[in-house]
Amino acid sequence: MRVLKNHLRQFDKYRKAKMCRLEGVLHRLIRHKSYCEPNILSKDQVERILIVRNNKRIGNMLFLLPFLRQVRDVFPDAHLTLMLRDESQAELFANLGVDEFCFSRLSFRNIFKTLRLVRDLRQQPFDVIFAPNDSAEDAALTALIPARNKISRDTLNRNEAYTHVFPYQGEKKHAALASLYLLPAAGFPLAPIDHSIEFCAKEKAFGEQEVDKIQSDQTENALLIAYFRGARGAKLLPDSYWDSLLDRFEQKVDKPIQWVEVLSPDIPEPLRSDIDTFSSPNLRLLASYLTQVDAFICCDTGPLHLADSANVKCIGLYNRTCTTTFGLLSDPSVCVKNIETFDVKQTLQQVGALA
Predict the structure, then answer these.
(1) Helices and strands in the chain: count of H runs, count of E runs
(2) d(Cα 264, Cα 129) in Å, to the nearest integer?
(3) Percentage of residues in the chain with pLDDT exceeding 90?
(4) Is the pTM of this model over 0.85?
(5) How would DSSP label each residue in 225-288?
(6) Is it the case that residue 4 has pLDDT exceeding 80?
(7) Please, are residues 314 and 351 in contact by the beta-carbon 8 Å criterion?
(8) Are strands 164-166 and 147-153 parallel, antiparallel or unpaired?
(9) Mind listing the pLDDT tens digit for each residue in 35-87?
(10) DSSP category for residue 51
(11) How far apart are CA 235 and CA 85, in angstroms?
């Protein structure tokens, strides 16, 4: 099944590459431009904002957090609507001042639901639409929805969907920070950058209570380390690697270790039968749980970036992807590239799990 999924992803990339030349023509045909204005609105003129982000990957959605927080800080009194792909993604952005969520449900099967959403959004124009990541889907939806300003990146074949586009000319940045330049480029100031999710008191208490259940007098002085074995495509590491990695930690670290394996629909069974496990379909509760561990080990995948957004002490295993673009933002998390030979004790010291 994983092999089939990887082949489908490669085909989808090929399809998108061939179709991109037609995007500009499409946007000219479908764009709603009745309310578009040539000048960028001032901060005081902005009362209704739509942020568009359609993607099904957890990590990619979490990378929207800094931009969303910036928009809320810059426009504290504006009505802020956030368009996501699916309802399940809204929980990631709870408690961050979003006034309204809407969901594109982008797929061929749900095309009529998407069109109904566009119809509803056309009833009252927005002052500003931000499409910070400028995917093909985001560009098409932005073109269809009325707004006085439509702001995004300067991207070949997609600029027709917007009223204002800005090129990025600086050095390569993290995917979560790469779109922030759009705000000062449009004349709006940046506030201090924050990439974190926001827990409520009940969610904070959940993590503490769940960890208390597995700790005892015998494990009170042990390091509590969680790990997740899942990943997509070539980033997936074999069970033999994980088994060897756990052995290395136990051999090199002087303190006893209490392991917790995070399970998921893709990883339903633990690596070792004598290890505690945790799973939750609620991503916020999973993040709350991870805030209570001494360290969390994971490949570059959704749960790693979820933990990073909760300021968990993360050890990210980067066997394929670029740490500049997809690395960890929280301090003192560590991105490990030499996954076979890294010093496990030193890494635990770097994240603050060991003195």
Answers:
(1) 13, 12
(2) 35
(3) 81
(4) yes
(5) EEEE---SGGGPPPHHHHHHHHHHHHHH-SS-EEEEEEP-SSS-S-SSTTSEEE--S-HHHHHH
(6) no
(7) yes
(8) parallel
(9) 999 999 999 999 999 999 999 999 999 999 999 999 999 999 999 999 999 99
(10) E
(11) 24
How far apart, in Å, are the Cα atoms of 210 and each of 193, 214, 227, 286?
A: 31, 7, 16, 10
What's residue 7's pLDDT?
38
Place of tokens 């709006």: 188
Tokens of 143: 């073109």
Local structure of residue 129 (DSSP, 8 states): E
Q: Tell me: the pLDDT tens digits for 230-289?
A: 999 999 999 999 999 999 999 999 999 999 999 999 999 999 999 999 999 999 999 999
Residue ranges and CATH numbers for the domains of the chain are 22-185 (3.40.50.2000), 201-350 (3.40.50.2000)
Q: Which two tokens stand for residue 333?
A: 């998390």
The tokens for 66 are 């800094």
Residue with tokens 């309802």: 87
Query: What value does the mean pLDDT take over residues 325-334?
Result: 95
Q: Which tokens hold the place of 43?
A: 């901060």
Instruction: Return the SS3 of 183.
Output: helix
Distance CA 14, CA 4 (A): 15
95 vs 284: CA distance, rounded Å: 11
Backbone angles phi, psi at 139, to 5 degrees: -65, -45
The 10s digit of each residue's pLDDT in 133-165 is 988 899 999 999 999 999 999 988 888 999 999
Among the listed residues 234, 239, 304, the one whose alpha carbon sits nearest the alpha carbon of residue 267: 239
Backbone angles phi, psi at 101, to 5 degrees: -110, 145
Tell me whether residue 329 is exposed, middle or buried, using C-beta atoms within 10 angstroms of its C-beta: 0 to 12, 13 to 18, 19 or more: buried
Report residue 297: phi and psi, to 5°. Answer: -110, 135
3-state class (DSSP) for residue 147: strand
